[in-house]
Amino acid sequence: MREFLSERLTGGVKVKGLFEIYAMALERQRQGQDVIHMEIGRPDFDTPVRIKEKAKEALDQGLVFYSEPAGLLELRKAITDHTEKQLGLKYNPSTQAIVTVGASEALDLIWEAFLDPEDEVILPSPYYGAYSFQLEYQGKKYVKVPILKEGGKVEYRREDFEAAVTPNTKMILINSPNNPTGYVMTPDEIKMIADFAKEHDLLVVTDDCYDQFVFEGEYLNIATLPGMKERTLIVNSTSKAYAMTGWRVGYVLGNPEYIDALVRIHGQTAVCPTVFAQAGAISAYTEELPETEIMLEAFKERKQYIAEFLRTIDGISYVEPKGAFYIFMDISILNMEGADFCEELIKSKGVTLSPGNNFGLEWGPYVRISYASSMEDIKEAMVRIRDFIAEKRAK
């Protein structure tokens, strides 16, 4: 029988994706193994009660049919009002906002709507692995710019980005706070990217899914800078800030003609996000939710604990996170790939991490630790990780 899968899907480099690792961990749990999850970016907090109540009310009211493809207008207005309050940017909810099936679909739509086969998008690396996977299966091109330097220092250097520009460059994607490093771009770095984009006439996509998780530094959205709103697409989601990963509600803000293009594709694919989930999300952007502040404080405490613990392990370095809920750890002293480290760790210690090559193939000797787990689990997991490293170094 011939091969029916597309060459785009079968011909690429085979890397175990984050959710494949997650599935493997769940299977081990079903088999009775004690597993501590530190591989997936899923807050361990429940969705705030008021959001769930709003969704239940929508179900009781029979809100179970399609919304218009751009999403419920009430939700779009809640999002644009929230954005104006947070960033001082005004967007028309009728023409400049689309509600998507999470931020992942938002990005997938953007690649499809804006990139022709010869076009290129610049990706600062390391980056969330879905970016490159989506681009590759769509047959789109990207150029990586390493931002992680020796000694665990992250820097956005103008000369690195200039070296990546070609006549086909159309777009640059930024993500701050960054997944997987937790790095928060400085205002000077944001301004540099803005100048770079304007000089080379590029569209900017800013993935702001972790914008509510800034522990250190000053958060600056690139769309607020002069001349940038009209060339920026803001992508965000309810998933992280409101512990709604399974609700699958995201959005894009941008110029009317850009949003219209996304709506046309979205309307013929997903059609719309789940309507009662959209109704619940309205509360995320219109009500004071104390649960979100509690979650932020917990992440700060967890980050501090893990960072201090890792400093006690000789030879192990990491990127000092200033936001999000990840630590990117360099294990090169062990002379092994992160993928092998993760596979052996789950088998021997029951702790799941994510291999560095999920965030760019060049980051093989790294692993990502997600601290979206309880403090009790984190304390136990860090002891197991330390013991595992000691065992590997003793061989």
Structural notes for this entry:
With 395 residues, the protein is of the alpha/beta class. It folds into 2 domains: 7-46 and 290-394, Aspartate Aminotransferase, domain 1 (Alpha-Beta Complex); 65-286, Type I PLP-dependent aspartate aminotransferase-like (Major domain) (Aspartate Aminotransferase, domain 2, 3-Layer(aba) Sandwich). 41% of the residues lie in helices and 14% in strands. The protein has helices at residues 7-10, 18-30, 49-60, 73-87, 102-114, 130-137, 158-164, 187-199, 256-267, 275-286, 290-310, 338-349, 375-394, and strands at 36-37, 97-100, 120-125, 141-146, 169-175, 203-207, 232-237, 250-253, 317-318, 326-330, 351-352, 354-355, 366-370. Strand 3 (120-125), helix 6 and strand 4 (141-146) form a beta-alpha-beta unit. The mean pLDDT is 94.
Summarize the structure.
The protein is 41% helix and 14% strand.
Key descriptive features of the protein:
395 residues; alpha/beta; Aspartate Aminotransferase, domain 1; Aspartate Aminotransferase, domain 2; 2 domains; seven-stranded mixed β-sheet; four-stranded antiparallel β-sheet; 13 helices; 14% strand
